[in-house]
Structures are given as structure tokens and as C-alpha cells.
Amino acid sequence: MSPSATSVLLVIDVQNDFLPGGALAVPDGDGVIAPILALAERFEHVILTQDWHPAGHVSFASSHPGQQPFDTIALPDGRGQVLWPDHCVQGSHGAEIARALNIPKAEMILRKGFRRAIDSYSAFAEADGATPTGLASYLRERGFTRVFLAGLALDFCVSWSALDAKRAGFETFVIPEATRSIDNGGSLEAAIIAMYKAGVHLADGLLAQA
Ligand code: VGL
Ligand code: ZN
Fold first, then answer.
1. How far apart are CA 112 and CA 10, in angstroms?
2. Which of 96, 139, 145, 184 is deepest in the core (most CB within 10 A)?
């Protein structure tokens, strides 16, 4: 594989709160850092994303009296929302991109989930499905045609971003060895099936081909 000028590596949410010791630690979350650094060497273009919530965000269990993290509730519009511990609060240490994920050449850091009443797993659209982040237009304007995804967590922000990338017309590849998952209530299996059905490629073994 030789990533070309029309390919971009999209690194999802490698932030302190998703790493061991963080507020919403993904099991073995820091295991993504070495493979992502290796990938970043090989990609000409790298973009990072940052989950970036205001205090009192709708996705926080603490915003819903009586609810516990990892419960699912129905929002007023009927959509289900998994509730999380408070995480990635704007300006907090937990929201910072992991110091070890040192990729100075990254060309853009996209923040998402900054509207109090809407979650945003995907880097392309908020979870209401109607509010775009602008990333698809940005990538198109830059001339990218292929999106490679890595980061945290595979079964939430990575897979939702991959599905939206594909929907937006990009050839889309997830690099599983550079992801880890939360796997809450069957979420990993559901994500893998959804990506398979949508035609998102799993680029396993990509690192071995260096
Ligand atoms: C994420 C749950 C809540 C993620 C973000 O980055 O996968 N998961 N917020
Ligand atoms: Zn979040």
C-alpha cells in the first residue's frame, strides 16, 4: 500500500479520557498509539478528531437524574442515546489529545460534540443525522478520495465516522489493529456488521506490509 496524495488518515479521538485512567477508558486504548504513529509516517496527510463536549452534555449520565453510565435512554425526538460518564469536557485534561500521539504534521484537528443537546460520534455529522460537521466538504475540496480510519472507539466514533465517510462517497478503510473498542451491549458486533453491509473495507494487515 502506498498512500497517495488523494488518501487521508483520519485519527479518531485519541484523547486522555479514552485511555487507561481516563473517564471513559477504552480497554487497551493506548494500544492504538504505536500503530497510529507508524501509519502517520506513511501517510502524506493526517487529520485528527477531538470529542469536545460542554459541561452538562446530553450524552452524560450525570445530566439525567436517576440514570447510570452505559444505560440507553430515549431522547425527546425518539432516538436512543447511550449515556456515558462525563468525558472530554472542553478545556479539560481528559479532552486533550494524548501527548504520546505526537503527530506534528497533522493538518487539521476537527472538534465534534460541542452542542449540548446533540451527541456526535461521527466526525462527519452529529448524531441527529442532520447537522454536518463540514468534514465531507473539506475533504472533497482538498481532493481526497480515500479515507483510512484509526483510533477510538471502533464500535462508536470510528465506525460511525467510517459509515458516514462511505455515505459521503469516499472509498473507506478501517485499520482494525489501530483501533480498540468499548463493546457495550453488542456494539462491536453491530458496528462490524453495519460496516460490512455498507461496503467499508477492513484493511487488516496494513501495518505488516510497511
Ligand atoms: C466516543 C463514546 C462517547 C468515541 C465518544 O470516541 O468512540 N464514545 N463519546
Ligand atoms: Zn463523547
1. 14
2. 139
Q: What is the mean pLDDT of the chain?
A: 94
Q: Which residue minimizes the CA distance to atom 2 of ligand 1?
A: 156
Query: Is the pLDDT assigned to residue 1 strictly greater than 50?
Result: no
Residues, beta carbon < 5 Å, ion ligand 2: 51
- Global pTM? 0.95
Selection from 7, 29, 6 nearest residue 151 by Cα: 29
For residue 56, pLDDT beyond 90:
yes
Round to whole Å and give the CA distance between 84 and 98.
Answer: 20
Tell me the three cell numbers of residue 155. 464500535
Distance from Cα 11 to the centre of ligand 2, integer Å? 15
What is the rounded distance in angstroms from the CA atom of residue 197 to the CA atom of residue 68? 32
